[in-house]
Amino acid sequence: MNKKTDTPITSLSPESHKDAPWWNRSVIGEDSLVEDLLGKFSKQEVSESALFLHNREMTDLRVFAKTAETIDNDKFGQEEFLIFVKMQYLLRKGLHEYQGLYESLQLLKVAIDAKDCFISIDQTELRYRGTKQQEFYNFVERLLLDHENAVTFREQVQMRLADLLPQIKTEEGRTALQNYAKYLDQLSDNELGLKLLSLFKTYQLADYSILRIISNLIQSLGKKDLLDFKGLVSLVRVNYGLFEKLRDIIGLSERQSTPETYGLMIQFIALANRHGISHMKFDDLIKVMQKWYKPYQAVIGIRQEHPPSEYKQPKEFKEAIPGIEIYEKYRKWLTDKKTGMVFIDFGDDH
Which range has the worst mean pLDDT, 16-25, 110-119, 284-293? Predict the structure, then answer.
């Protein structure tokens, strides 16, 4: 009986392929052991165009990172400041307990910030009630309801003032009307200021001094613990009647008008007073990091498209990414460990 002998599969055999057992493969030639070994040790070069793009984006990253490093500040890592940043995010996005509160809170803040203007306007209207003054007040009230923007509002106020001043007999009366126009001009620096004045007139707020009382209440918090929310709510409960008078003006529904809601508002305003300057600088930092993020994505993408397993890694690929420490630091600090929610937007769709 003849024994069947195994014939080695060579590169010329029709059954030749790389998946054949190594003992059935030829040493040299196509699909050979040598070719397989060479393939494992010889890797592709990263193309010049890919390397050029990588280096160009890295140059941009260095510029943005250097700017970010000059803005970054240890204050940004303080617990109270980070909580304020999270509150800002929730407020802008209308999430959780801040849902539907953004404009109302902005109106309350502007009302408090511009309280002196509102009080002065009210006092002028009560004290100077001549025919021409009344004519001017009525003109302003109509204009508040129908003006294109703050610039046109100011222009029309000044034109009307110029027409009426020569018709007012006393110097005191003319000065009062000029001061009235000055207060309007100050309010018009913020469109919400004009909106508030219109709302005050629509809802006929009888006592503008409540703005000063609420402002003093917030100022009294001083260096107190603003994270003691229960304490803030207790403070609101004592003065709840004052806040209720502003409910319609700042656009809160009956359901929203609670001590807890006003507690959130005064907490936010007090934190804004305490950290306002730092937060403006932090905003500058985030704007820089948002510009940084696009070239960062590009660099990461190029490196991922040319993995070490397939490509020889140029020395540029081994360089640390400028600015990555700042990015990772704030993503960590502003990410909720339990829910994974990120309270900051670098432009990465999180």
Answer: 16-25
